[in-house]
C-alpha cells in the first residue's frame, strides 16, 4: 500500500465526524426518546418474527462507519435463515435477477424475505428500529448516508472520502429521495451531496420528511 494512501486513511480516522458536538447531542437525545417510544413495538415485532420464522430475532451485519471503522449494524431479521443459499440458487437460475443484483446490490422480488412479515417490516422501516441503539453508542447518526458494506464502499470511487467523513444514518437524503427506487450510482451521488452541503437545518428537514416517506412507502422494497 502506498504511503499517501496510508496517510489518507490516518487522516480519515482521526478527523471528527461531520456535525461535531451539535449533531452528536441531537443524535443521543433523539435516540433515547425513540427507544422509549418504540419499546412496545420492538417487543411485538420480536415475538412475531420468532413465531413466523425459526432463527434469531436480530440480524447483525457488518457495515462501514466513520473513518472506515466497521461496526455491527442491528436490524430485526426479515430474511429466512438460509438466505445466502436461496440467493445463490435464485441468481444462478435467473439471468435478469443476477444483472439486477450486480447493478444495485438488491432485488425487487427477493426470495430471501420472510413472507408477509419480512415485507411489512421493510416497507415500514420497522426492521431498522434497533439501529437507534447503534446511534446511542456512536456507531451511527440519526441522519447520514445509508450504511454500506466494505465491498459497496469500493464502488463509491471519488465519493468514498465523503462517506467516511460522517457516521451512516438511520435516515438520510437517500431515504426521502426515493429509497429503493433509486439506483446504486444515484445513491452514491446523493450521499456525496448530503456530506458536501451538510447543515443542521438540512438534518432537521430530512427528519421531518422521513415519516411521510415511510408512511407513503416512497420507494420501499
UniProtKB/TrEMBL annotation:
Q: Note the Pfam families from the entry.
A: Bac_transf
* Record's keyword annotation contains Chaperone: no
Q: Which GO terms describe its biological process?
A: polysaccharide biosynthetic process
Location in or out of the cell? Cell membrane
**Entry keywords, A to Z:** Cell membrane, Exopolysaccharide synthesis, Membrane, Transferase, Transmembrane, Transmembrane helix
Its family remark reads: Belongs to the bacterial sugar transferase family.
Cite the InterPro entries for this sequence.
Bact_transf
The primary site where this protein sits is: membrane
Q: Where is the signal peptide?
A: none
Q: Where are the transmembrane segments?
A: 28-48
Q: What is this protein called?
A: Exopolysaccharide biosynthesis protein
Q: GO molecular function, one example?
A: phosphotransferase activity, for other substituted phosphate groups
According to the entry, every stretch annotated as the Bacterial sugar transferase domain falls at 23-215
Q: Record's GO cellular component, any one?
A: plasma membrane
Amino acid at each position: 500500500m502506498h504511503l499517501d494512501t496510508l496517510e489518507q486513511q490516518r487522516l480519515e480516522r482521526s478527523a471528527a465526524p461531520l456535525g461535531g458536538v451539535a449533531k452528536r447531542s441531537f443524535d443521543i437525545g433523539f435516540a433515547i426518546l425513540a427507544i422509549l417510544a418504540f419499546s412496545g413495538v420492538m417487543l411485538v415485532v420480536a415475538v412475531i418474527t420468532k413465531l413466523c420464522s425459526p432463527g434469531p430475532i436480530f440480524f447483525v451485519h457488518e457495515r462501514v462507519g466513520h473513518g472506515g471503522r466497521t461496526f455491527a449494524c442491528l436490524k430485526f431479521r426479515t430474511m429466512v435463515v438460509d438466505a445466502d443459499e436461496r440467493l445463490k440458487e435464485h441468481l444462478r437460475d435467473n439471468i435478469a435477477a443476477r444483472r439486477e443484483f450486480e447493478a444495485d446490490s438488491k432485488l425487487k422480488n427477493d426470495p430471501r424475505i420472510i413472507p408477509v412479515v419480512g415485507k411489512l417490516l421493510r416497507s415500514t422501516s420497522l426492521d431498522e428500529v434497533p439501529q437507534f441503539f447503534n446511534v446511542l453508542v456512536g456507531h451511527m447518526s440519526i441522519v447520514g448516508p445509508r450504511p454500506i458494506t466494505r465491498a459497496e464502499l469500493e464502488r463509491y470511487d471519488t465519493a468514498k472520502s465523503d462517506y467516511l467523513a460522517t457516521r451512516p444514518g438511520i435516515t438520510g437524503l437517500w431515504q426521502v429521495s426515493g429509497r429503493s427506487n433509486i439506483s446504486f450510482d444515484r445513491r452514491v451521488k446523493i450521499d456525496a451531496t448530503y456530506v458536501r452541503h451538510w447543515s443542521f437545518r438540512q438534518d432537521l428537514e430530512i427528519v421531518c420528511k422521513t415519516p411521510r416517506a415511510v408512511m407513503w412507502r416512497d420507494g420501499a422494497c
